[in-house]
Amino acid sequence: MTEGSMEESDAVKDTSPTSQTVSTATKQLEELEENSAEIKCDPVNEPGEGEHSEKNDDNTGGESEITSVSSANNEKGEADEVKDVSNESSSKMTEGSMEESDAVKDTSPTSQTVSTATKKLEELEENPAEIKCDPVNEPGEGEHSEKNDDNTGGESEITSVSSANNEKGEADEVSGSGNRTQAQTGVAGKETYFIEAASVGWKKECWIRRWLGWLMWCWAAFLSAAADFMFQRMAWLLAAEDSEVEESEENSAEIKCDPGDESGDGEQSKNEDNTTVGGESENKPELSATTDEGSSDEDTSGNEEQSVEISEEINKKKEYQRETETLFDRLHLQDKYQQKLTPADFLKIGPPVKQDHDTSEKDLAHTFLQRLLILDYRARYIPVRQDSPEVIHLNPDPESDTDETDNDDLDLDDLLRTNVDCDQSKQTHVHPMDVQMAVFHCSDSFFKQNMITKLSQCQYALPLLVPDPVTMDIDCPLWTFRQIRKSWKITEIKDNSNIVTMKSLPICKAETAMVSFLRLGSLSLSKSQLMNTLINDRHNTFFHRNCPGSTKSRHLMDGVAEIAWYCPAGKPNDAFTDCIAFCNLHGDALLIEKQRDILMEKSSVNVVIVPTLEKGDKSSAILTGISALLKSPKPLIILIADNDHGVLKMKKGKYKMGLKDRSLSDVSEVLKKRIGDILSGPHASFQLETMTEVSGIRVDEDDNDCKNGKSAAKPIMNLLKKLVVSKIKDEFLPCQGQLWHNWCRINKELYHLKGHIEKEKCQKQQELMKIRQDQCTASCSDLMKLFIESLSSLPSTDKKYFLKWTQILIDALPTNDLTSILQSYDGKWSEVLALKKDKKHDKSDLLKRKQTELDQISTELQSATFGLEHIFREMGQIYEAHASLQKQTKRGQPDWSKYPELAAELMISGHPMELMDGDAGHVPLTWISSLLDEVIKKLDDKRVFVLSVLGVQSSGKSTMMNAMFGLQFAVSAGRCTKGAFMQLVKVSEEMKRDFQFDYVLVVDTEGLRALELEGNATLHHDNELATFVVGLGNMTLINIFGENPAEMQDVLQIVVQAFMRMKKVELSPSCVFVHQNVTDIAAAEKNLDGKRRLQEKLDQMAKLAAEEEVCDAECFSDVIAFDVQKDVKYFAQLWEGSPPMAPPNPGYSESIQELKTFILSKASQSKGITLSQFKSKIHDLWNALMNENFVFSFKNTLEIAVYRKLEVQYGNWTWTLRSNMLTIENRLYTRIENGNLDKVESNYLNKEMNKTYEEIKKAMTTYFDDDKDKEMLVQWRGQFENKIKEFHDEQVRGVKRKLDEVIQQKNACKKLDDKKTEFENKLLQKSKELAHQLKDKAKDEEELKKHFDSVWSGWVRELTADTKPIEDINLKDDQSKIIQELGFEWSLINASERSGKYKNIPEDCDYGHYVSHSHSTIFHEIGKKAKKFFTRNIQFEEQQQIRSLIDDVEKQSLDAITSKPVAIRGYSSTHLQEVANNVKKKVTAFELEIKYALKKEFTVDLLLYVFHRAESWLSESHKKFKGNNDALSYVESKKMQYYNIFRSFCKGSSSVVVLGELMCEKLKVSTVEAVCNKTAIDLAGEMKCTFPAFSGNRLNLEKHLLKSLAEKEDFDGFITYIRHPRNQVEAFIKEEVQKYIFTDNKDKARNILKKNVEDIKNLLSRALFTATEKVKKQRGDPDMWVKEFSSLLKDQLTFNTICCQNLSDINNFDFLKEETEKGLVSVIEEVSSLSLDKMEEFRMKPDQILIDQLCNCCWVTCPFCAAVCTNTLKDHSPGDHSVPFHRSTAVNGIHYRDTEILSVEFCTTKVASDGSFYPGEDPEELIPFKEYRTAGPRHANWRITPDESELKYWTWFVCRFKKQLEDHYKLKFQDYGEIPSEWKNHSKEEAIKSLDDMFNL
Known about the structure:
The protein has 1897 residues and is of the alpha/beta class. It is 48% helix and 8% strand.
């Protein structure tokens, strides 16, 4: 014992004491001190033992401190009995465990233990005995629980109370880890605790202290039991212990202690050649004689020899369990035995696997698993870095530290000494198989299954029988074998020829011969190494002593039986002709009876290896074992280590052979032959599933969860077993069979329509709905009911088992059909290839027939392939069928609406989900969308990095991804990936800081050029698949297999074309080329050459693809960012040798890890995409792939949605700028009118706008930087920033232009303005004088009026005598004169004017009457053939051109006229003359472009129409000019004002009153103007922000316009909208503004007006007060007052200064203020009650403001259906024109050439069809609709996305206005222009609703 172990306990602590117990214990201790007896030490042997409860220690501090206390013997020599129900056996105590405890803590006392302790104390007090200690040898032992300590710290500290040492007081040392003293319990079921006294001197004190420790142990035991069931467990353990101890008593041996030897041979588990089974010692200690019932004989000299009986089994179990705990601790798996490792722990993106560096012991288990999961069979040979000094190296340093002695010479005795001094307490490396088995024991059943499957793939032996490390029961992990499938080829000789048959089975179902290898005794030969030479002499299938990392200490493998299968390849060098199982029992079979007997019973042949067969003590047990084997009927081969004879046949089936002086290869060859001979005859066969019948072992599949899962799967399998595999899908999965395939075929046909397109489309859509109805009807199969019910109702764990069992049992279904079909396919395919290569003979018919037969076999192959994925596919089809029909779930059927949720749960848990149905070649969009929606609900819209994989079939794509990420894609033979599957891989928490996404979403695909799809459709299918997965992925792995340039070229061509398409649709994935199966990946030069050749091929393919896709690309780098040096990876071949026995190549695993690291490094630079974006991408890509022209067909709905949001923001930004500029304009206009501003500078306007403009720019920056779609927005950022700048600059220029015009007008009127003051002064003076004359008649209103009228005309003549009046204009005469001057006859002009038809020339549907037939080439003979094709009839096309000419001329003419300053300088006939000349030039130029002439009537009508359109504007402008410049008109307009002044003077009013009235009269006009202008701006802003039709983008406005037209059913409005969409939109805006102001929101509008009136009122009040106070203070005159007042209104109200020359007598300015305020009351009231339509008289009009804002967009129309481009930007180049949904071309009057038949097809349908049309530019050239962009400029910039959708709105319109359309266009809906009957079912409500559905994208 060390000194450290002899420290006494200073304190005893408890966290939950009871006062009664403590007081009793204290009292007894006091009495004991008084009556204690002298204690003497026995110098011979006093073993002591400290025992500890097996149960968990729940100490607060996290450590379990166990104190060993011994009891004194009583006078009778009988040991006191202390019952410990928790201890089963004594255990070894190491040095570190022998320190005494300072504190004993416990929280759960029990009264039972305390009462027992009290009883023993009483007995001890009565009979204290003398105890003598042996000073030489005092072994003490502390026992520790086998159970896990649940301490916080995780450590268990075991303390033993040691005896006192010799007279020097020094502690005896207990040396060597193997030293063990085993104490016997006194009687059965009880254990005695002996006191180990320190010395005689201790006496009473030592005794008391020992009793105190004993009492505290009782207290700890009292605290350790908590629940009733624990007592039951204790009782069971106690019973077991009683039995074992009684058996031990009968067989106990006498042991004598040698006082000179303090160490015992330690027991150590050895490997198979020289090791006894776990824990058994070859050197056993001798025990002293014992008496019955454990009583000891008393020595007459007072010395007492204690006899101890030992139970070796209990001891071994205890020792084994403690060593297991130590092992788990070293591997940091201590917490994983309870909380098992699961697949989820490794199905995530974690740190890279360490390859080249040593691993610390704590990381050993994790590294082993990581490397195993990537199929690195070197996972068993991981170098370990020594972190702990307690671990010794296998190969010690050549120089060892030894004690220096005086003698420098080597002591020969030291050299020859066998017992070399070394520290045996040092630990060795953990044995590699201990690592494997520790991980196995610490894994849940699913991870065990994954682990065993990977071990099988690494061609390693698998555990078949495994002792449980705790209970020592024998487990058979049958469940772990369930995923393993083996394939082999059987060679049979028939008729002197070898017949090779292929077999592929789940290994659990395979019936094979089994050869078991057993070892009896110890020997130097490695049994495992010998077995490896039989199976694969190049690979260590069984781990053996010579493998790297092997150690002599092996803990968990003894008693384990491992199994491996030899699978022949059907070649001459096969070791065996059929599959054979080899089983290896580790350890000495003599000591492992249960496993030995099982293997002997199950084996076909037993091979036993023995050291010797000589008679003697050592071999007697071996001979007994051999005897049993010889009696067995099973064939037996005995291999004798010390014998050198050859094979001897003892009797039938019994052989022996010597191994001495034989090489392993010789022995192996002999054994192969002998085993082969035996198995060629009748023999027993072995099947794994029969292990369930073996008694005495526990099969893991008997666990309740596993049984529940299997029970749920069994009914499904009972259904399936009734049918052959090829019939299962037709019977139980009808929705995905022919019905689904037909649906896919018809759906694809919708994109290739011919003939009567719309009618055919409607028919096909009806067929699709019929198929969906049939699917709904057929969706109630028993199989699906059972499957969905289990999936919905089972708990989580049971559900996992259920799915696994279902897959396992499905895979185990008889595959004879599949095997034979594959062989037939292989043969037929060889015939087809041979015929294709034979170019000498014409065998096209034969080839065609063979190809047909191959297609038939392919169909059979699809039917015979059945897996769990087909059941999920059926779920998807059931869901799609019900969702498309919106059918309710019938009673008794599963709820179809829950299917996506069930599938989402599985996908989140790591289950792969089918993305594209490989059999049908179609993506079930509805199902996938709903599935991803549910995933988003459960995970939120997480970001994912999409990794796609593409390559040739069977090139190892799925294997690579499974190894890289631990996925579960199907890779077994005959089950290659069909279509595309997706699986989520979570990014671990420790790695999230390196990535900007949460998951990696892997998309695995079927191989390109798949054999099943060989034929004409192959290339199209491959292109489709490649484009789809390349488009989906953020990165695409292109997997190239082998070095065949031809194969590489095929794949590269497909891949490059896919990337070319991505470039054209502005998707930019990255790519990595993986070159697998390269012969020499280490040769750098060869790799460089390979990369060069790959680069050349890629560049070559890029050029070819560029030609096909019409794209400019000279090399692959022009298509995608690609670095051949970095983005090409070379992989070694997967197998190290030839399958099926070859293990994976370690170089392959390294390549996997390097590739994964590279992928993740590139992924770390990407943000990935959200799940919702991924969903949208699937839709967009697949919808585009349905069309032949992917690039033209691709519609990125996600981008469209983001762009539309941006358009709304753009509208808000521009409105903010516009409204601010309107306010500035209003303010400056007032200043100009008041004469306070005579020049507007652009800099000033920019300065005024600067603050708002900067805010807008800041808002834009925030939006583009912070929006969640900022990655997508970046492509438009520059464009929109420029557009905002352009808008701002245009607003500044526009306002400056308008204000400059106002200034010009003001300057032009300056002469009159100067006279106005003179006029007003004179009028005021004359009025005053007249009033003075007639003041006596003031009461007679009529008389006053009469007198005023009589003098007014004179005044006017007098005032305007020197000014020339402005005459009115006569536009009609001017127009006729101008037209005549152009050379047109008067009669022609007159006739046209009288008819008035020119007014409707734009709406004319037939311009044929304007065409001169004598020159026309339209009506030439076309021929009947052309009628078969749809075309724009040439007359119709020319009509469209004439209509365009009219529109262009109208716009240009009006722009020219309105640019003239008529309001400033007046009208001149030259304005019309200029316009007329331009019109004639345009018509002449038009006639030169077309190939016919137009009549004069056309030009005359066009001129009259243009003049008609300009007439109103010219009249208004001239009227304005006249009002501003005609003195006579001005004076006449003042008559009423001066009559009122005259009347006031007549009534005696003072000058103050008159001035007040004059002020109010002027303020009234300006107030009305100011209020109306401000109200117009405010109302426009209110409607822009809140009115639904105006608050969005251009598309939103279109939607509301169409709703309005439908609600009113206004055909004329529709025609205006179709012909002149902008005019109709403007009319709609005006109408909605009127309705908003005067009907729907009149109160709100009125409140806005009142608020503005109130603001003006407050302004006037402040101005009156300020002006009055200032004039009073400065003693000013009336002129000063008026001027001051006017200056205060300069920015708000126009106010012409009043001359107060005739009112100079005013001096009471307060009175003037009061009079003015009094007059303003009525003015304010009058203005407040103004009608809102008064706004129409002023500059600012709300409808015009909104028109300017909302109509400043794109107005280009579709060349087919005239739908208007809905882009909010006016000039959005280089972007194409587009509209979400086009119309029936009948809306635009399109008809078939040379017929009166209207065309009803939609544009989107036409461009997907195989039809053609005649463009207007070349009437003889037919252009396919799919190439419509080549038809000319009008078509080239339009993007019409082909799809099968059609807006119900326009189908309703065509049906509703059929008659009106026919009358309007003078055409008919008949023959192939007949309206489909399905359209007539659409109601107006559905039509309006469709606008919400379809425009809400």
